[in-house]
Automatic annotation (TrEMBL):
Pfam families with a match to the protein in the record: Enterochelin_N (PF11806), Esterase (PF00756)
Keyword Hydrolase: yes
Listed transmembrane segments: none
Protein's UniProt name: Alpha/beta hydrolase-fold protein
Family designation: Belongs to the Fes family.
């Protein structure tokens, strides 16, 4: 049974005698807390009580703070009897930051990681699943800090709430900040957005970052995060090409260490950009970057085309990947690095601390996690003599807050 905090226990007692004022008082406390109720239990830990008021049959909490298995989206919340108040308490490190949201009458969950994978490989089923989640979702009305969903197929205004615990390094993006115009291009049937600092001319030679899952990064405001870092001097002036996916499911195959992607980026995109912008002549100033499956793809591109990309930023990369789950063990790309000659490539590797949960997908060993795979890759790079500029376990989960926490530090290290 979900523990009931002292505040909710008081609400239950008050509600029994005077329901209206009891709910008003609880709502006022949630507003004052700007969302979840947070109670420190040690110098490094807090209890986070998520509370949601909704007259529905069921509510689930959707957040990586729960460390759920790969195939589960959310955890059911408990309803206080006779009320519309739902709650769930989670113990967490006090420096954590994550997104979270509520699902009203949530759709059925996947029964296994294999079922999840099958859905994500099928465009129609993947679209239907995302639409069901979007329709059920609700942000926390008491929390003004929001983050767009990284992928949407229906309404564009679907958002999560952002929880930054007391010791978290995460800072929300300010309402103002430097302008962040993005030039829109079409390349080989897909969109490519290009950001450069205000005042930069197309002919200016600037470091180039090719960031995969470009539509996800732009929805999540990563261009604004980078612009702020350039403005305050944390990053040098740079140019970022946001490489968009063609469809919801195309990334699943394109990012699975497909040599065609490396050729498209090195032999197609870079010349295309070079006709329009001033690109650095040396590969060390051209970075390929990605998150999740995009991080895996960035690692593969860096291995196969070091002549074009001399630096790589892998953020929460799917380094557990195996192309042949029945016969090939997980960690396929890590082994390729161990077997290949060492390239003159610089790396920065990050992973979310909350991602230390079993991957559970077909072909992965029972103990394999996102974190263990990242550590294995880091160790392999170091053993091979690569220039590893940094390795960081970010205090977040597999979400956009993680990306915000990782991208500036990673690029700063690679472009110092």
């Amino acid at each position: 049974m979900t523990p009931v905090t002292a505040r909710l226990a008081r609400f239950e007692r008050d509600h029994a005698t005077d329901p209206g004022p009891a709910l008003d008082s609880l709502t006022a406390d949630l507003g004052a807390a700007r969302g979840p109720l947070v109670e420190r239990v040690s110098p490094t830990e807090v209890d986070v009580t998520f509370v949601h008021v909704a007259d529905v049959a069921a509510v689930s909490l959707r957040t990586k703070l729960l460390r759920l298995p790969q195939h589960r989206e959310a955890e059911p919340m408990r309803r206080i009897a006779g009320t519309d108040v739902w709650h769930l308490t989670v113990r967490a490190d006090s420096d954590t930051a994550v997104v979270y949201g509520f699902l009203h009458d949530p759709p059925a969950e996947f029964g296994s990681a294999a079922e999840l994978l099958a859905v994500h490989l099928d465009e129609d089923r993947a679209t239907a699943h995302r639409l069901a989640l979007e329709a059920a979702s609700a942000a926390d009305p008491h929390n003004p800090d929001r983050m767009p969903w990284e992928l949407v197929v229906g309404a564009e205004d679907v958002v999560d709430s952002v929880l930054a615990l007391p010791d978290s390094p995460f800072t929300p993006l300010p309402d103002g900040g430097p302008p962040t115009e993005v030039d829109e291009h079409e390349f080989d049937g897909r969109r490519v957005g290009v950001y450069q600092p205000v005042g930069a001319r197309p002919t200016d030679v600037l470091p180039l970052v090719v960031l995969l899952d470009g539509e996800v990064a732009l929805r999540g405001g990563i261009h604004r995060r980078l612009a702020a870092a350039v403005a305050d001097g944390t990053l040098p002036p740079l140019r970022v090409a946001f490489w968009h996916n063609r469809t919801l499911t195309s990334r699943t195959t394109e990012f699975a260490c497909d040599p065609a992607l490396a050729e498209a980026l090195a032999d197609g995109l870079l010349p295309f950009l070079g006709e329009r912008y001033g690109l650095p002549p040396e590969p060390s100033r051209t970075v390929v970057a990605g998150f999740s499956l995009g991080g895996l793809a960035a690692g593969h591109v860096a291995l196969t085309r070091p002549d074009a990309f001399g630096a790589a930023l892998l953020m929460s990369a799917a380094l557990w990947f195996t192309p042949e789950p029945g016969t090939e063990p997980d960690g396929w790309l890590v082994r390729r690095y161990a077997e290949a000659p060492t390239r003159d490539t610089a790396f920065h590797v990050t992973v979310g601390r909350l991602e230390d949960v079993p991957v559970g997908l077909p072909g992965t060993a029972p103990g394999t996690t996102w974190v263990s795979a990242a550590r294995s890759f880091r160790d392999t790079l170091r053993d091979k003599g690569y220039d590893v500029r940094g390795y960081r376990e970010v205090p977040s989960g597999h979400d956009l807050v993680n990306l915000h926490l990782a991208v500036v530090d990673g690029l700063a290290a690679l472009l110092a």
